[in-house]
Amino acid sequence: MNAKKKRRLAFAAALLTAGAAVAGVIVYGLGQNTMYFRSPSDVAAKQVGEGVAFRLGGLVEKGSVTHGTGAEVHFRVTDGKSSVVADYNGVLPALFREGQGVVATGAMNSSGTFIASEVLAKHDEKYMPPEVVDALKRSGRWQEGNP
Amino acid sequence: MIGELGQLALCFALALSLVMAVSGLMGARATALAARKTATSSALGMLVFVGLAFGTLTYAFVTSDFSVMDVANNSHTLKPLVYKISGVWANHEGSMLLWVLVLAVYSGLVAVLQRGGERLTSAALGVQGLLASAFILFILFTSNPFLRLDPAPFEGAGLNPLLQDPGLAMHPPMLYAGYVGLSAAFSYAAAALMVGEEGWARAARPFMLIAWIALTCGIALGSWWAYYELGWGGFWAWDPVENASLMPWLIATALLHSALATEKSGAFRTWTLLLAIAGFSLSLIGTFLVRSGVLSSVHAFASDPTRGFFIMVLIALAIGGALALFAVRAPTLQGGAAFSSISRETTLLLNNVFLVAACACVFVGTLYPLVLDALNGTKISVGPPYFALTFAPIFFALLLLVPIGPRLGWKRADLKAAWQALYPALGLAAVAALVVLAIVSPRGVAATGAFAVAGWLIGASILDVRKRKGARASAFAAALAHAGLGITLMGVAGTTAWRSEALTVVAPGQKTVVGPYTLRFDGVTREKGPNYIADRAHIALMDGDKVQAMLLPEHRFYPAEGQDMNDTAIHTTGWRDLYLALGDDRGGGRFALRAYVSPLAPLIWLGGLVMALGGFLSLWGRLRMKEPAPQPAAPVMAQAAE
Lengths: 147, 642
Prior knowledge:
The structure holds two protein chains of two kinds. Chain A is α+β, with helices and mostly antiparallel strands. Chain A has helices at residues 3-33, 40-44, 130-138, and strands at residues 34-38, 54-60, 66-67, 72-78, 83-89, 101-108, 114-120. Chain A is built from three helices and seven strands, in the order αβαββββββα. In chain A, strands 2-4-5-7-6 form a five-stranded mixed β-barrel. Chain B has three domains: 1-164, Up-down Bundle (Four Helix Bundle (Hemerythrin (Met), subunit A)); 166-410, no CATH class; 500-599, Tick-borne Encephalitis virus Glycoprotein, domain 1. Chain B contains 19 helices and eleven strands. In chain B, the strands form two sheets. In chain B, strands 3, 4, 5, 6, 7 and 8 form a six-stranded antiparallel β-sheet that branches. A four-stranded antiparallel β-sheet of chain B has the order 2-11-10-9, covered by helices on one side. In chain B, β9 and β10 (576-587) form a beta hairpin. Chain B is flat, with a radius of gyration of 26 Å. The model of chain B is unreliable at 296-302 and 627-642 (pLDDT under 50). The A-B interface holds A 3-4, 15, 18-19, 22, 25-26, 28-30, 32-37, 55, 67, 69-71, 89-96, 105, 122, 124-125, 127, 129-131, 134 and B 160, 231, 296-298, 338, 353, 357, 360-361, 364-365, 368-369, 378-383, 385-386, 389-390, 393-394, 503-505, 555, 561-566, 581, 583-584, 586, 592-594, 642.
């Protein structure tokens, strides 16, 4: 084997090692940091473990929003079948409304309350987050063209 | 009448783009002189007609011609003029027309500048023509902006208030100039594969530079918009649409570096071709992700499945075609020139490995949830921690290398001398780290490391500028761009490590302390904007008993669109931002207030600007430089390097 071939081989081996290392990092990173989307029915069916971060999506139940003395907010997220009590300490997005779609990131605590770390309400009157539409369809509370 | 004129212009443009495709590809043969002339003139003709179509649509928006459906769905008579104009591209149909307009502009530039050999340019125009005809067909069949509405409504439906913003008015044209600019590199690469390489990397370099500058500015603008408009104080969320613009930027950056090696020393010939194809492919995938409605965001206009399908077929044809061409033709091209393991080529190779690896991390993190959903309906999301774990360390390693590359010569170099010349930069890095450890709290490993690397980058750039007096523009350009990276890194590290957040409910007259600031809440007034009603909070920034500045965050309601949005107020010293967002009404004049103190935040975008300036400088040097570049190194030298 001449010097040139040796160099090429070493080069290819180095690239392969680098590629494998990157792939390893990616797989490890995905394993550690993916969050599942769950509907209130999923939560009621005990599919979600305590303390495991996930995204909860549905509609903000009408008449369920109450404020504490500070910045804390309590509300219920519903998909028409089940609902989950959620606590959030923060300023709600401008588009947060009762009866409208919401997606919140957080985890369940031991008393069955969802502690939200982030609340998103990216919809407008025309738009509903696709996951929420899906959750409503599964619970049979979705009518086409009439959210 | 005006709508039909636009439609007609677009049909003419389609015909010309087809002529351009056929004649351009025919012109790749040595003897087809006439075909080459036809390709050039049809490129210019297409630009005129696409420009006419775009002008027509803009006119319809400005005059609020609601008989055009696109205008009726996305505009409103009360909108300020600038947002009537930006409304042209703030919807699916118009944004696709803008895409084609930018493509036509680049085709025109390729035709006028005639860089590279005649056959190369002609083939490149042919590929541009193919792309243009595919996208014009897409517009005419699935996203026609000139469709009529009969009877015409008296008033339009308005535009998402989030999009009614000066930063976002400029964001799409910038980003498209970047995305579509990569089409020129793609077309030149495909042309080089067809005619056999004829200095394509040199011919395409101005287009790569323009695309890179535009992408840099576009991403910076988008991130700045997200910062002041979305009200959560962040500058980057690893949102799929953000990632869609970051991926082409990473590959374009790799391409700029790899193409330089190809041009100067003949290294990485085939790899550079592949990068040019990959860059534009990621632009296309970005367009698909953003515009097809698979992602939920303010960017997703299209909900029509035929559009998503059409774009997917288009992408498959473009990428598949280019890769097939590459597979067939690349082995016939001359291989890359050899180089010693201590040389500038090696550092550029590492640069490319790191950039492509970083891009791979973003790619998987962005597409994995979509693939999983398509496969079995499992809905997951990949959060920022994934990107912090994968992207950040790879990019960090890349930054460590940046100062070394420009100090090594081509082919073979003296690492020790380069290293010794960098001692002052190492000193600056050490000082930066010590400053962070000594005076700033809280201290953190990540922040200390980031500031050391920033010092390392900026120090090396200063050395480059000082040492190379009388050097060519390109050396200064690289120094500026690399210093810009350091500046952005400081901004990102400072904001991430030391940002403080306060969340309070305030009553009128009440004072509240946020970090080093004392604020007094003076109540909320009702204000009337041109097309919205606002609750405007009056918040005094106090300096002892004096009022230093008034901050006026607003909560706006847009009746035409039926939407709410927050308008934040930012007080900046250039080194530190005080950022206020008004929350919900808690009754009795009390309001929730969110405040962030973000140290060094302005540096994030300042760094982007400096990077773009570096790009401009390089472009200016390129276009001024008329004499042919030195030929790639002779084989004799290559052997010497073995």
